[in-house]
Amino acid sequence: MNQRYLRKRAFYLAVLARKLRSFDDVQDLTFTYHQGNAMRPILIVKPKGKGFKVRLHPYPEEGVFRLNRFHLDKNNVRQWWYRQEEKQTAHSREGDSPELGPATPHYNVWILRDLVWDVNEGHAVHQLWGGAGLTDGISLLKVWLHQRELDQGIGSFSNYIMLMFVVYLLSERKLSPLMSSYQVMRNTLLQLSQSDWCNHGISLAGDVTSEDDQPSLEDFHRSFDVVFIDRTGYLNLTADVCRATWDRVKHEARLSIEFLETPGVDAFETLFMTPVKFINTFDQCFHVKTSDRLLKCAKHLSVDSHSIDVCGITTVACLPKLIELLYKALGKRIQLLGLKLTPPDQWNINESPPTKDVMTLTFGLLLNPEAAMSMVDKGPSADSPEAAEFRQFWGDKSELRRFQDGSICEAAVWSCKTLAERRKISAKIVKHILNRYTIYSMCNLYIYIYIYIYI
């Protein structure tokens, strides 16, 4: 309740670090954020004279909490506490159920990850036991993720998610323990490229007897962009994965399958030995440098309640809304919208931790050559119900326009005189949308290989 577990977890690690630094066998102790999540720090221990490091993840013993306490629909962070208000004042402001507030599915997931660790690990070990090809194939898939910078930072498609996906494919009999490492790798990438976890999530709890209050697949889809349910049926393993990251995972998996099926190509060198940099994947990139005013931006984007759910990490609170706006604005102009995942910092146990917010968001645009330089975004007919929504979305860029077929429709027009200016239309759209839906004014827009946007 009210972040007590997560704070005690961090305090426990600090006490453990203080104790370990008195040991002569310990060379170095550092903290970092697990998968970039500032509310889930871990302790990294480097033994003296050894070439490895140990990452310590604390978790409670089984049975400390009932899992249904962290149901998706339950609130475990009270608004009056988060906003430092008097309880009586909050009662008068919130109306119905003032003491509870909205559900906190992300906060609940962050605690559930520790509670169900043993269950999921035990299930994975049982499924993978005795399959040498499976373990080698998983190692290849981890390298594949790392070379594409998809396994680092908050919202990443982590190695653990990939491991559990292989376990899921085994349970669905789409993989076999008798397969070679190549077959495991190829079939897993093929299944990834064909999956749609945004609309049709998957679950490891299919053969487990469900409880009466266990959330359904539809409940998970209402709360998260990407859905992959764990063995207990309560935890979404991809709760922090945003739509842009999932789309890029599918895109890279699809390209990898094409490489594997192309004769005369050294697929191993291409897929596992060659780093795939973010800037080399996309046609255009732009950087949004955030500031201390991001909290006001959360309110402007109507995600203030979501900020409570993610413990005040306002970059995480705003990101889904920003991605939704960019997808809607760019539409058919792009084949893929990507988000660069930033690896978490490490700091010495005697130092203060870094800020919990990501100070620079980097997006990439893979353009659709047939539509990227179109000067007109055609909207609905002027007399249709959707016309008002189109005008509301585009604001002063929306205007009535007669087209060659005689129809009169709403349209967003991007005036350009040269081909060079038409190449910058995507930049104009991004700048217009971020200006319209955030409280900031954009400036310093440079277009060479990248587009830089500072807010």
TrEMBL record:
Pfam families recorded: Nrap, Nrap_D2, Nrap_D3
InterPro entries listed in its UniProt record: NOL6/Upt22, Nrap_D1, Nrap_D2, Nrap_D3
GO cellular component: CURI complex; small-subunit processome; UTP-C complex
Compartments it resides in: Nucleus, Nucleolus
GO biological process, one term: tRNA export from nucleus
Transmembrane segments: 433-453
GO molecular function: RNA binding
Gene3D superfamilies referenced in this protein's UniProt entry, alphabetically: 1.10.1410.10
Main localization (coarse): nucleus
Domain Nrap protein span(s) in chain numbering: 1-117, 135-274, 280-436
Keywords for the protein's UniProt record, in alphabetical order: Membrane, Nucleus, RNA-binding, Transmembrane, Transmembrane helix
Protein family (similarity comment): Belongs to the NRAP family.
Function: Part of the small subunit (SSU) processome, first precursor of the small eukaryotic ribosomal subunit. During the assembly of the SSU processome in the nucleolus, many ribosome biogenesis factors, an RNA chaperone and ribosomal proteins associate with the nascent pre-rRNA and work in concert to generate RNA folding, modifications, rearrangements and cleavage as well as targeted degradation of pre-ribosomal RNA by the RNA exosome.
Protein name listed in UniProt: Nucleolar protein 6
